[in-house]
Write a structure and sequence with these properties.
With 520 residues, this protein is of the alpha+beta class. The chain has three domains: 167 residues, Beta-Lactamase (2-Layer Sandwich), CATH 3.30.450; 86 residues, Helix Hairpins (Orthogonal Bundle), CATH 1.10.287; 187 residues, Heat Shock Protein 90 (2-Layer Sandwich). 51% of the residues lie in helices and 16% in strands. The strands form four sheets. A five-stranded antiparallel sheet has the order 4-3-7-6-5, sandwiched between helices. Helix 1 packs antiparallel against helix 5 and helix 9 packs parallel to helix 10. The longest helix has 56 residues. The C terminus is likely disordered.
């Protein structure tokens, strides 16, 4: 296939050739029109000149016609004949009977039949009319007839004619000039077009070479150079740079994901192998064997949880995050989460409360929403030291339900905030299995996918050492959007179910939205 440069050059040459042809055709047509107009004016002027000559001869008192031969009939006088010979082209002087009184030199050069035919044609055209075209054999004439109303002598009609095939210098010169210069113009234009196209596509060749040099993920840090213009190539370069930046980010995330997944799987597999070997080398039913098998079972469960989390994220990446769309009352679900959080908090000596609990209803998957809320609650308890506090709240706004988990834990540094929802990221940066807060760092990533799959969002506000607040916002179900945010007796229902009554400061913050921990 020809290159774009060659195709552009060919297209330019074709367009130029078509333009030259159209220009030449229009020019030749206009020149022919001008020539025909000039011929019409010329034949009319010759007719007027012949008529004036006849009138002047009659005004001098001399006879206009004479009979030199009775067989031939009347003819113009020799004096008048000499004067009429000065009129160029074809001139005929006819009497009222259509007989020829005078033939010019050009007419006498025609054969007898042609002279008779031309005379009859001159007798047939109207007097004083515009010049008429007349074709005779291979000749083309332009005729005009004039007469003096007084019929000077026997002269009744004067006919003049010009040859329409008479070569004209203008069109012939133009045609020959175009035929000679067109090939030269075309060749020069082709060379110029090819050079211009090559110069225009030189930046494209540079872009192609630079992009070809980026062969793998390790060279994605390279960027294409930009100049100061804002043409299409610069916009293409910016687009390619942005694409390579996204690819670099994706490759980096993939490498981190692979490294983290390998790290997470390597340790439990090592422990599992050691426990199985120890169990094989110990006496049957011994305590040491039971301990080894228990550790192996624990690590197996951890790997199963990790694989399940990775499978969930993989399905989310592929758009196969299946949800059951049902009407879900969040109030009993939040109460269930609260009761579980209280039990988890007792073991860690953490106070758990739910100051705000309002009836809300959303359209979604109850099990996935429970997984989302439990992830946030377990994270809050996990990263809150003993003696701390975790507050849950469920409130309804005009068109959205808000579930907030606020803790007084270790918090998140401002530099780490953009990475909170990345996979395998953990606030304490500790990867040891011995750490009591050990986890995979996939919970928040899964939680964010669940919130987004429900058409909502998951946001976080935090200060290092002051705690964090995670807020889930979900759109209300269509039939619930018009209901009031809180029904009478909702707070009493929560109190009857064992939920702590709201405290005034937290009540205000729940209405106004999530407030960063530690801010007052």
């Amino acid at each position: 296939m020809a290159s774009i440069r060659a195709r552009l050059t060919g297209a330019y040459a074709a367009a130029l050739l078509a333009t030259v042809i159209v220009f030449a055709s229009v020019l030749l047509a206009s020149r022919r029109t001008v020539r025909d107009r000039a011929l019409a004016e010329r034949v009319a002027a010759e007719a007027d000149l012949a008529l004036r000559i006849v009138r002047q001869a009659a005004a001098s008192g001399d006879p206009v016609t004479t009979i030199s031969d009775p067989l031939i009939g009347p003819v113009v006088t020799p004096t008048l004949r000499t004067l009429l010979e000065g009129v160029p082209d074809y001139v005929l002087v006819l009497d009222s009977a259509g007989r020829t009184l005078y033939n010019s030199f050009a007419v006498r050069q025609l054969d007898v039949d042609a002279q008779v035919t031309l005379s009859r044609a001159g007798s047939a055209i109207p007097l004083g009319a515009a010049p008429r075209a007349f074709d005779m054999n291979d000749q083309k004439f332009l005729l005009v007839a004039v007469a003096d109303p007084g019929h000077v002598g026997n002269v009744a009609r004067i006919v003049t004619a010009v040859d329409r095939d008479e070569p004209a210098a203008g069109p012939s010169l133009i045609s020959s000039t175009l035929l000679l210069t067109a090939p030269i113009i075309l060749l020069v234009s082709l060379g110029a077009a090819y050079a211009i196209a090559g110069r225009a596509f030189r930046p494209v060749d540079v872009i192609i070479n630079e992009v070809e040099a980026i062969t793998d993920g390790r060279s994605l840090h390279r960027r294409l150079a930009l100049d100061g213009s804002n043409d299409e190539l610069v916009r293409l370069t910016r687009t390619l740079n942005a694409m390579m930046e996204r690819l670099e980010t994706s490759f980096g995330a993939l490498r981190r994901f692979t490294a983290d997944a390998s790290h997470e799987l390597k340790t439990p597999l090592t422990v599992l192998r050691a426990d199985v070997e120890r169990a094989m080398n110990t006496p049957p039913q011994s305590t040491e064997q039971l301990v080894a098998l228990e550790e192996a079972l624990r690590e197996t469960r951890r790997m199963a949880d990790l694989v399940d989390s990775l499978l969930t994220l993989a399905r989310a990446d592929e758009g196969r995050f299946d949800l059951v769309r049902d009407l879900v009352d969040l109030e009993p679900l939040a109460r269930e989460i609260y009761e579980t959080a209280v039990i988890l908090g007792e073991g860690a000596e953490i106070t758990v409360s739910m100051p705000v609990l309002e009836p809300t209803r959303v359209l979604g998957d109850r099990e996935r929403l429970r997984q989302l809320f439990m992830n946030l609650v377990t994270n809050a308890i996990k990263y809150t030291p003993s003696g701390g506090r975790v507050d849950l709240s469920l409130s309804a706004r005009l068109d959205a339900a808000t579930f907030t988990v606020r803790d007084t834990g270790i918090g998140i540094a401002a530099a780490d905030m953009p990475y909170v929802f990345e996979r395998f990221w953990r606030a304490d940066r500790v990867r040891s299995r011995a750490n009591e807060r050990g986890g995979f760092g996939l919970g928040l990533a899964i939680s964010q996918y669940i919130a987004q799959a429900h058409g909502g969002s998951l946001t976080v506000t935090s200060r290092l050492g002051r705690g964090s607040a995670f807020t889930v916002t979900l759109p209300l179900a269509p039939e619930s959007a018009a209901e009031p945010a809180r029904e009478p007796g909702a707070r009493d229902a929560g109190r009857d179910a064992g939920v702590e009554p709201p405290r005034e400061p937290l009540k205000e913050s729940a209405r106004d939205g999530v407030r960063a921990p530690g801010k007052s």
